[in-house]
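INTERNAL TRANSFER SHEET
From: sequence group
To: structure group
Subject: Carbamoyl phosphate synthase small chain

Please process the attached sequence and return the structure record in the designated field. Keep the field labels unchanged so the import script can parse them.
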Amino acid sequence: MKRYLVLADGTVFTGEAFGAATSKAGEVVFNTGMTGYQETITDPSYAGQIITFTYPLIGNYGMNVATSESLAPSCQGVIVREVARHPSHWHNEQSLPEFLRQHDIPGLAGIDTRRLTRIIREEGTMKGLLTDTVTADTVAQVQQLALPHDQVQQVAIKQAYTSPNTGRRVVVVDFGFKDSILRELAARHFQVTVVPPTTTAATILALHPDGVLLSNGPGDPEDVGYALPMIQAVEMARIPLMGICLGHQLFALANGARTEKLRFGHRGFNHPVREVATGQTFFTAQNHGYAVAADSLASTQLIQTYVEINDGTVEGLRHRNLPAFSVQFHPDATPGPHDAVGCFDEFAAMIESSIHGADQPA
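Return from structure group:
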C-alpha cells in the first residue's frame, strides 16, 4: 500500500506504508543513530515530530517492552529507507510495524531518506504530513497546519510519585523525562520524587530535597516559562540543581540567558562535545531543536562549560555562585555512548558538598 510524505515546501515523497493506517502531521526531523531506534521512538522529547532515520535499515532486532524510554511513544510518525518486518533477536517481542500499529503511529518506508535529510539540512525542519491520499489541496493544507505548543503538558505526569529507594532525596521535575535518567539516579542510591512541570517551588521545598533535577522534554523552552520562577527559587534556596536538555535551556532562561531555534537541530548519538576547562572531547547522545544563545551569557552569572564541536553551540552551563549546572546533551545516553555519565556523579558530589556545608562552586 502506498503512503506519502507531503512537506510544507511542496515536496512529496511516495513510499510504502507500514504501522498504523492513519494520517499524522508534525515537524519532520532526522536522527543519525545507527541503532537505538526503540529508545528514540519512545523518547518523549520527540512529541509532535515525525522522525526520519538516516541509517538505511531500521527494525532488524525488533522491539521489547524493557527497552522503551516511556510508557508509550508520543512521536507523530516514523520514516525509514527499509523497514525490517521479520526481526531476529532473543529479546524481540514484536516487530517495529506491529509496535507502531499498536500505538496508532504511521510509518513510511522505501523513500530516499538521504534526499529528505538533505532537504531538512538545507531548508531546516519543516511541517510535514504522512497520508495515504494526496489531492491538489494537500500541500496548502500542510502549509496552514499549526504545530502544537507546550508539548511538555502532553507528555509529563499529572501527579507526583516517589521511588521506594532510601538515600539522598532528589526531586525530578518532569518536562518529559526518559526512564534512563531515573535509572542513573537509582544507581547512585537516590530516593527520587517525580513531580509535574507546573509544581511550585514551595511544594518542592516542602519535600526537603537534597537536590533537584530538571529533566529533558519536547518543544520550545519559551513555552515553559511557567517553570522559571520555580527554578529561580530553588537556586536561591541553594538546593543543588542539575538540568538536562530542555532542563538545561530552562536553567539558562531562568538566569537571564536567551534560547534560539536551530535550523535542523541535533538528534543522534555521535555528537562530539568538548569540555571547556580541560579540553577533553567525548561523544554524546543529543536530541534537541533549540539551544542556548552563546552571546546572551555575558550579562548572566552563567559560565559555559561544554561546547559542541560541530557547530559551536552551548552544551553546558554552571552558575558562578550557586550549586547549579546543566548540560544540553543526555549523560544518561540510552541509546548512545556513556562518555558523559559522570555528570550524574558530579551532581551527587555537589549534593554531598552542600549537605556538608561546602556548596560553593570551585
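Handover comment: The longest helix spans residues 342-355. The two ends are 61 Å apart (CA to CA).
Transfer complete.
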